[in-house]
Design brief:
Elements (H helix, E strand, L loop, with lengths): L1 H30 L7 H8 L4 E5 L3 E6 L6 E6 L10 H11 L2 E5 L13 H7 L5 E7 L1 H13 L5 E5 L13 E7 L7 H6 L9 E5 L22 H20 L14
Parallel strand pairs: 3-4, 3-5, 5-6, 6-7, 7-8
Antiparallel strand pairs: 1-2, 2-4
Pfam family, one: Abhydrolase_5
Organism: Halomarina salina
GO molecular function: hydrolase activity
Amino acid sequence: MIRAWFARNGERLVVWVVALLVVLASVGLFLVQPYPVDERAVDAVRETPALTVEQTDTGYTVHPSDGESTDGLVFYPGALVPTRAYVPLAGAIANETGLAVFLVDVPLNLAVLDVDAADSVFAGEREVDRWYVGGHSLGGAMACRYAEGAADRLDGLVLVGAYCDVDVRDTDLDVLTVVGTRDDIVNRNALAASRDLVPDDAEFVDVEGANHTQVGVYSGQVDRPGTIASTEARQRIAEAVSSWLDDSTGDLTTNATVSRSAV
């Protein structure tokens, strides 16, 4: 009976299965559509004489134009945010700290699909003395997961609008968490709980008036409006990183003014 049914309806069934697969594929593509990027903001950094922006096999590298950087920060993007959306933040950090910032590409713009993306950067950069990893949102959480298994090769961890979801308390990592006070996307309860997952001397910094999406130059994510300009938000993040690095290493020049505050 079943064989007879398939004989009569097999062709129709194939059509329906193919149609269903097409629909599922279309839904999947819709769900992983990246957020639009403000290309003008990216181009503005490219045209800044003090900074060099290079597109590489691993993503983008941003560093000061006036010399070789001896310290590097590998930065993971937030979920569905194209890597280049962080070029302006990388520029602000590089300008403020002298770091070379390596923005890593990840499959489908989802860092969870390539937690070890930093490895490809390390393999090609042998002149860097100190390494830091970090990221925004989901990218920050994945950077923490990477750091959990690679703490011996790292000096620190930089989380922006993000928090650790794995335990790195017993590492020697210096940890910085920077969150905007208008960030309506980060889970505040999880952020508070993450204090128990990082070393006791980890620093938490609030950027007054900044929201979640101002970290990058992209649109389409529902967030509370920031009460400061996006360029100012990124500059304050860069100043927080600079001040933290100065505290951690004792030999980086900074002019940061961002103060520490509790989450």
